[in-house]
Design goal:
Elements (H helix, E strand, L loop, with lengths): L10 H6 L21 E8 L3 H10 L6 E4 L15 E2 L7 H7 L2 H24 L7 E8 L3 H17 L4 E7 L2 E13 L2 H10 L6 E4 L4 E5 L5 E4 L4 E12 L13 E12 L9 E5 L5 E8 L2 E12 L6 H16 L4 E12 L5 E4 L5 E5 L5 H18 L16 H19 L13 E7 L2 E7 L5 E4 L11 E3 L4 E3 L6 E3 L4 E3 L8 E4 L3
Parallel strand pairs: 1-2, 1-10, 2-7, 4-12, 10-17
Antiparallel strand pairs: 3-6, 4-6, 5-6, 8-9, 9-10, 11-14, 11-15, 12-13, 13-14, 16-17, 18-19, 19-20, 20-25, 21-22, 22-23, 23-24
Helix pairs in contact: 2-6, 2-8, 3-4, 4-8
């Protein structure tokens, strides 16, 4: 039975909440907000690893490239990853074979291993200082149910001719059966991207932050419109923004399932021996374990408790559950970082990467919590599609493909229930809150999102998602309002930072005493 780990947070620790180990390394420049119309060759929407690598590749072929990001470059999804690039995506290959075919499953593996090998070669050739380690990606079974699933996955590895090792591993004081895929990567993604940003040609690549695209318009040469009304005309547009900025016939919000995971980072003890390994178990609750490094000290990065956003769990309770596991199994007594991250999953397990039918708009989305490997892969696929018009893996990741109807229908029927549940009167009515705290409360019979900052300034928003009207939840880890239906997220001041919503929340600010 879950027993919460009681940890009193100091002011310094509160500031660290949802700030990641990687972002503490950031040395990137600040970029301006777009304040004019533009006419360019390539518009890249999204400044994570996928968007930045796309600019790096495409600058060899085009003279006018623009990256726009609604937040700061790499500070959203990319900066909240666990830092591993691997073709071992948990328990997946057995399901891919049964859901699709042996051929598609093998091509999926080959494509992702291509991304791993490319990144390894790029880091080596460019001599990029990003703490790259060559590791075994280890899938392990924590109970009898997972052990049977491990046997299924081994069978899939054999069918697909995936090179692997089968071993008994030790984590803490426990032994587990495991499958290892060698020659995978763990690295510091922020140090890597700072190097790539320095390699962008300033004469060819322009970057704008805090610039949100609210819509793209399809025509011979498409254009994008920002929330402030500025127009970017481009010969080709790439939506690499975690969620596609496209509202055409595909209705991507019905096909992308928002999924939540948590990460904590604690000091490692000398007796643990997890070097050259990245671990993940098979089923939920997920436990991903690996080392990270800072200031010549070794840390344990522990991630897990994945769930789809419709499950309205308490965010801080989930974090504490993860910490309790780290204390019990990895002897972690001090945590320096904790964060929450959101990704999107596709019902058929394969991301959307490619050209949107009959347009000059391309997209990369639905990375199923394996965003780094899929982002690198997407940058390679989309570059080839734009430059050469064809790439080997185009059909497998085709964003226009038909999904499995039963799974898609099941998800969207559940969203109706989630919408209704979000409207029920089950929120906290007590409006007494302390500094750096927030909640959903009722004032004169109406719900409001209320946040008080460290200066006692009050931020008041209406907690309803502009996308389709779902009631928002307050996330007490990241200090955001999150939509349980389709994954839109908003800062406590109402600014939209993720998801399908193209509007922010109206915010009223009251000065503190």
């Amino acid at each position: 039975m879950y027993k919460p780990l009681t940890l009193e947070k100091t002011n310094k620790e509160v500031e660290k909440m949802n700030k990641t180990l990687w972002l503490d390394f950031s040395k990137k420049s600040n970029y301006p907000k777009l304040d004019k119309n533009l006419d360019v060759d390539i518009l890249i929407i999204g400044g994570g690893i996928c968007g930045i690598l796309l600019a790096y590749h495409l600058q060899k072929y085009f003279d006018k490239i623009v990256i726009v990001d609604q937040n700061k470059l790499y500070h959203n999804t990319t900066g909240h990853t666990t830092g591993k690039v691997t073709s071992q995506h948990g328990y997946i290959y057995y399901d891919l074979i049964n859901m699709h075919s042996k051929t598609i499953a093998k091509e999926y593996y080959k494509a992702n291993q291509l991304a791993v090998n490319y990144l390894k070669e790029l880091i080596t050739n460019e001599q990029i200082d990003c703490d790259m380690e060559i590791v075994n990606a280890t899938l392990f079974a924590m109970d009898d149910n997972e052990l049977q699933m491990l046997k299924n996955e081994e069978q899939a590895y054999q069918m697909l001719e995936i090179p692997y090792l089968k071993e008994t591993i030790t984590i803490g004081t426990n032994n587990y059966q495991a499958l290892k895929i060698p020659n995978q990567i763990a690295f510091n993604v922020v140090k890597f991207l700072d190097h790539i940003l320095a390699k962008l040609d300033e004469q060819k690549v322009s970057i704008y932050e805090n610039t949100k695209i609210k819509k793209t318009i399809t025509q011979l040469e498409p254009l994008a419109v920002t929330t402030e009304g500025f127009i970017i005309k481009a010969k080709q547009i790439i939506s690499a923004s975690h969620y596609p900025v496209y509202r055409g016939f595909n209705f991507y919000f019905t096909k992308l399932i928002p999924s939540i995971s948590y990460v904590v980072v604690g000091k490692a003890i000398d007796t643990l021996n997890l070097d050259n390994e990245i671990f993940i178990n098979i089923a939920n609750p997920a436990r991903s374990i690996q080392y990270g490094y800072k200031d010549n000290e070794k840390y344990i990065i522990l991630a897990g408790n994945s769930r789809d956003s419709s499950k309205m769990n308490d965010f801080e309770e989930e974090i504490n559950d993860l910490k309790q596991f780290g204390k019990d199994h990895l002897q972690i007594t001090e945590y320096l970082y904790e964060w929450y991250t959101q990704d999107y999953q596709v019902c058929d397990l394969i991301p959307f990467i490619g050209r949107i039918k009959n347009t000059n708009i391309y997209m990369a989305a639905g990375f199923n919590k394996w965003g780094l490997s899929h982002s690198v892969l997407a940058s390679l696929i989309l570059t080839d599609l734009i430059v050469n018009g064809y790439v080997k893996y185009e059909d497998i990741f085709n964003p226009n493909r038909k999904l499995l109807l039963s799974k898609t229908l099941k998800y969207n029927l559940k969203m109706i229930k989630t919408y209704i549940s979000s409207k029920l009167d089950n929120q906290i009515k007590d409006i007494e809150i302390g500094p750096n705290e927030g909640k959903i409360a009722k004032i004169d019979g109406r719900k409001y999102g209320i946040f008080k900052d460290s200066n006692h300034k009050i931020y008041l928003v209406k907690p309803t998602c502009p996308h389709m009207g779902c009631s928002l939840l307050y996330n007490n880890v990241s200090k955001t309002y999150d939509c349980p239906c389709h994954g839109s997220r908003f800062k406590y001041d109402g600014t939209c930072i993720d998801g399908p919503s193209n509007k922010s929340l109206s915010c009223f600010i009251f000065e503190g005493e």
